[in-house]
């Protein structure tokens, strides 16, 4: 949408002016988020940020939440604060590498090249790898005589969010569902010998050991407890 069109619209009727201001607000929001990359990073891993810049570079300044990370000038290269000894700046490309990422390293990373703030920004969220889950039944004792049971994909998600859950019946494919899956004692369910669950976040994924289906035609009818 051209600026001259918006200018004309803003000088029109009250309704058109309201539309104009809304469009200007949306344009401002889009401009503010342009070039901002949301990135998840595994705790303890290495973060690499490569701003899209071509041409000769004479100076570089990286910031984290407005605080200095590293600065390169003709006078030399200097790293700051907790980023010392685990940060490497490529002065020919402005690429930045930070090892041993921690939760405190989450936040917005910005870069200035040749004293000009670049549009490319990195909104980094440092999260833990998911733990190995286990399938836990409800009630805790689920037998072949039960009408139905609830299976819970149980695992520690502290510091690992966002987490998604998937389930597998027997040797089938993974189906994304919630943390809880209800199984019924019917002919369809009895076809499967086991159930497995998987926890996944943007940096990792792990699956449980197979949980024996208490309703399977191949089970002996005894109670089935937690498999971890």
What would you say about this model in short?
By secondary structure, the chain is mainly beta. It contains two helices and 18 strands.
Helix content: 10-25%
CATH topology of the largest domain: Immunoglobulin-like
Structural class: mainly beta
How many helices in DSSP terms? 2
User: Span from first to last CA?
Assistant: 57 Å
- Write the CATH homologous superfamily of the largest domain: Immunoglobulins
**What is the averaged pLDDT score?**
86
Gross CATH architecture of the largest domain: Sandwich
Instruction: Characterize the main sheet.
Output: 7 strands, mixed
Strand count: 18
Number of domains: 2
Oligomeric assembly: single chain
Per the principal axes of the C-alpha atoms, what is the gross shape?
A: rod-shaped
* Rg calc: 27 Å
Low-confidence stretches: 1-10, 19-33, 221-228
The CATH class of the largest domain, by name, is: Mainly Beta
Strand content: 35-45%
Write a structural description.
The chain has 228 residues and is mainly β. The protein has two domains: 86 residues, Sandwich (Immunoglobulin-like); 79 residues, Immunoglobulins (Immunoglobulin-like), CATH 2.60.40.10. It is built from two helices and 18 strands. The strands form four sheets. Strands 1, 3, 4, 5, 8, 9 and 10 form a seven-stranded mixed β-sheet that branches. A hairpin with a 2-residue loop joins strand 8 and strand 9. Helix 1 runs antiparallel to helix 2. The N terminus and C terminus are likely disordered.
